[in-house]
User: What shape does this take?
Amino acid sequence: MLDKKLYIPEHVAIIMDGNGRWAKKRALPRTIGHKFGAENFRKITRYISKTGVKYLTLYAFSTENWKRPPEEIEGLMKLFHQYLIDSLTDFKDDDIKIVYIGDRTAFSPSLHKLINESQEQAKDRKGMVLNIAMNYGSRDEIVRAVKQLCNEAKDGKIDPDSITSKDISDRLYTGGIPDPDLIIRTGGEMRLSNFLLYQSAYSEYYSTDTLWPDFHEEDFDKAIIEFNRRNRRFGGV
Ligand code: IPE
Ligand code: IPE
Ligand code: MG
Assistant: This one.
């Protein structure tokens, strides 16, 4: 358990990477890695909600992940189905509010419907906000915000010369949510892979070689301890 004296970031985002490598190490198919990854998602989310984090954003599927082999995509969609059904009852005791970010229209109609239902039935919960990024891409998100602003300008609802960075933030999927304080990436890569590009301007980045299915409570605690050592200056001194 975390030392009570530590500062708990308000918004933590996690790039849940390394499921495929986790499976490969065990000579298992990649989809089994995703299965263990999904199980870990459930456990660690509960733990994080108890630490006092107010917003948790998890990267589950990117706009580029459609490039993967059809059997892997099929396995992932089956898993999403199962976890979405479970989410209808899951996280209730922890009062976790589930929000989906990303373009959900690209999913099958049944998956799309489940996403809407899962979000709807959790909408009045008062605990941690869990943003699940599914078919999420930050460039796609920024393009959508720009299109929206252009249309508003065309309709005379906004003056182009008065547009501020807040106007852009408000039109992102994460509109109204504070920027992430800490971005954790498992699996060792040192890149954002199209995740929260606009929102991460001053986020602290933390990378661990631990693969996602192995990322447990103590690994999260380590990231929080490291975050507490950082000196955030936001351009000041
Ligand atoms: C992350 O694990 C999960 C998704 C992108 C859906 P990966 O599947 O990318 O695992 P590695 O990076 O190949 O090990
Ligand atoms: C990022 O991981 C996306 C998710 C974790 C959902 P990827 O495995 O897709 O990223 P790259 O391809 O290594 O950059
Ligand atoms: Mg990966």
Q: What stands out?
A: The first strand starts at residue 11 and ends at 15. The CA atoms of residues 14 and 58 lie 5 Å apart. Residues 15-17, 59-62, 65, 189, 191, 193 surround IPE (ligand 2) (CB under 6 Å).
